[in-house]
Write a structure and sequence with these properties.
The structure holds 2 protein chains of 2 kinds. Chain A is built from no helices and 11 strands. Chain A is mainly β. In chain A, strands 2, 4, 5, 6, 9, 10 and 11 form a 7-stranded mixed sheet that branches. In chain A, strands 1-3-8-7 form a 4-stranded antiparallel sheet, with no helix packed on it. Chain B starts with a strand and ends with a strand. By secondary structure, chain B is mostly beta strands. The chains are: A mainly beta, B mainly beta. The interface between A and B is medium-sized, with 25 and 26 residues.
């Protein structure tokens, strides 16, 4: 079974631009979660989608948004990029709500200059 | 906000020794999970322990959970160079799917 795939692997953007990151979950997984990882804040939950609906949302500004398609693939978008948005963005899929481990992709490393 | 807090932040031991990492959390949980992350990669699930369990084993891993103290420990026995990674505990944080601690950076020296 193929793992979680995130594209692109690396991205360099300038302040004020917007960016879209993509995540393909493990086949059959309907839940997709996004996390931001930085050295200072660690792993911060962004949002979770299940069957195309946002089920949970973390404490991030509205510049961070996401969506999920009918095939469970997910995208997240960050508009009006700031230097502080530089981070490793991780996507994870799982098969159910509770007691189901998260399966992570290798992330997208976003650098904002 | 962080639910789980790992201790120590960094740990360096010799190959073959045992490594113990601790995790403390603040609110009641249904389960606690441990993940490993190699540098610049995604996290890999290691083990899940439910709130009604006290100890769980998986290969060279042993996890304990003390809900009265809101703490958990991860023991890696007979460490290997390949165990060098960051280790995170994660708890089901209510509205959030999983809330991760800051992690313990483990270095195994040959």
């Amino acid at each position: 079974k193929a793992g979680v795939t995130q594209t692109p692997r690396y991205l360099i953007k300038t302040r004020g631009q917007q960016v879209t990151l993509s995540c393909s979950p493990i086949s059959g997984h309907r839940s997709v979660s996004w996390y931001q990882q930085t050295p200072g804040q660690g792993l911060q939950f962004l949002f979770e989608y299940f069957s195309e609906t946002q089920r949970n949302k973390g404490n991030f500004p509205g510049r961070f948004s996401g969506r999920q398609f009918s095939n469970s693939r997910s995208e997240m978008n960050v508009s009006t990029l700031e230097l502080g948005d530089s981070a490793l963005y991780l996507c994870a899929s799982s098969s159910s709500w509770q007691d189901s481990p998260l399966h992570f992709g290798n992330g997208t490393r976003l650098t904002v200059t | 906000s962080q639910q789980g807090e790992e201790d120590p932040q960094a740990l360096s031991i010799q190959e073959g020794e045992n490594a113990t990492m601790n995790c403390s959390y603040k609110t009641s949980i249904n389960n606690l999970q441990w993940y490993r992350q190699n540098s610049g990669r995604g996290l890999v699930h290691l083990i899940l322990i439910r709130s009604n369990e006290r100890e769980k084993h998986s290969g060279r891993l042993r996890v304990t959970l003390d809900t009265s103290k809101k703490s958990s420990s991860l023991l890696i026995t007979a460490s290997r160079a390949a165990d060098t990674a960051s280790y995170f505990c994660a708890t089901d944080g209510g509205a959030q799917k999983l809330v991760f601690g800051q992690g313990t950076r483990l270095t195994i020296n040959p």
